[in-house]
Structures are given as structure tokens and as C-alpha cells.
Amino acid sequence: MSLDYSQYLIHRQWMSRALDLAQIAGDADEVPVGAVVIDSSGSLIAEGENRKERDNDPTAHAEIIAIRAAAQNLRTWRLNQCTLYVTLEPCPMCAGAIVHARLKLLVYGVDDPKSGAIRTVANIPDSPASNHRLRVFGGILEYSCRQQLQAWFARRRHISN
Q1: Residue 138, class by beta-carbon neighbours within 10 Å (0-12 exposed, 13-18 middle, 19+ buried)?
Q2: Catalytic entry in 30, 63, 89, 142
Q3: Do 35 and 44 contact (CB within 8 A), yes or no?
Q4: How far apart are CA 9 and CA 3, in angstroms?
Q5: What is the pLDDT of residue 129?
Q6: Structure confidence at residue 115 as a pLDDT band (50, 70, 90)
Q7: Which phi-psi region, left, alpha or beta, contains residue 134 (left: φ > 0; alpha: ψ -120 to 50)?
Q8: Does residue 81 carry a pLDDT above 60?
Q9: 105 - beta bridge partners?
Q10: Does the keyword tRNA processing apply (predicted)?
Q11: For the chain, which residues make up each domain, given as ranges?
């Protein structure tokens, strides 16, 4: 998918907000992943950060929290005019939720070589099991997203040694 400069600037703006949310998660001893949902007019309608540890909930990924909030705010589960921004390529659970919510566009920061289910390890949106064709754009603020995750994991390893 090609991107013009104005779209690129908008994607950077919203990914920056997702990075801020990821920082909040990291400061709370959660894996630093943040997500925001934008409506068709370009307004923020929902956001989330990883909360698995704080909520004792294995489904409390940033994407799931943001999608749930967006559906509640719009009073519909069909988010087909919305864009989801997330700092890390979604896992299989989140990729499934993204497809089922029928999001218009997914923009993510950095590939996840261990469990990325959008393009890296698996490709759920383009699989025969998908009932929706999702537009995807990866690599927005990729360096910043990668650095944030690597620094957090490095601190965790240092603390545990």
C-alpha cells in the first residue's frame, strides 16, 4: 500500500500516542504495547495498553482493550470505518479480533518475529478463514517501537539476574 506524505504524518501522530500508552504499560511492569482506534473523521475514539498483569486477564492486550472501548463508544461491533494503530504486530488472538471487528485499516509499528499474526509468523487477515479483507500498513515509527520494547526487555533481564 502506498502512502502520501500527509497520510504518513497522520500515521506518525497516532503511532506516537500509541507509544505513549505503551510507555504507561511498561512503567506498570506490563509488556509495553499501546493501541489507539481512530474513526473515519480522524478522531480518537478509543485507546488501550497492555493490562494482562494488572487485570489478571490473558486477553487484556492493548488491541483488545482498544477494540472493546471503540465498539462501546460507537455502539456497534462493526468498526469498518476505523483504523487501529498498535506499536507491535498483533498476535493470533488480536489478529482474530481485528478481523472480526472488520477494521478498515491496521497500522502497526514493528514486526513480532515470535508471534506476529499479520505478516511475520502467520497471516490471519489473508487466510481462507478470514471473513474480512483488512488493509495493513506496518513500519510506522518502527525504530522507536523496537527500541521501546528492547529497552524494556533488557531492563527485565537485568533485574532478574
Answers
A1: middle
A2: 63
A3: no
A4: 10
A5: 83
A6: very high
A7: beta
A8: yes
A9: 83, 135
A10: yes
A11: 5-160
Contact between 117 and 94 (Cβ < 8 Å): yes
Task: Judge whether 145 is annotated as a binding position.
Answer: no
Helices (H), the chain: 5-27, 52-55, 62-74, 92-100, 142-160
Question: pLDDT at residue 152 above 80?
Answer: yes
| Amino acid, single-letter form, for residue 132 | H
Radius of gyration of the chain (CA): 15
How far apart are the C-alpha atoms of 80 and 84, rounded to whole Å? 11
Assigned CATH topology for domain 5-160: Cytidine Deaminase; domain 2 (3.40.140)
Residue 61, annotated as binding a ligand: yes
Q: What is d(CA 27, CA 38) in angstroms, rounded to the nearest whole number?
A: 25
Residue with cell 497522520: 10
Establish whether 49 is a catalytic residue.
no
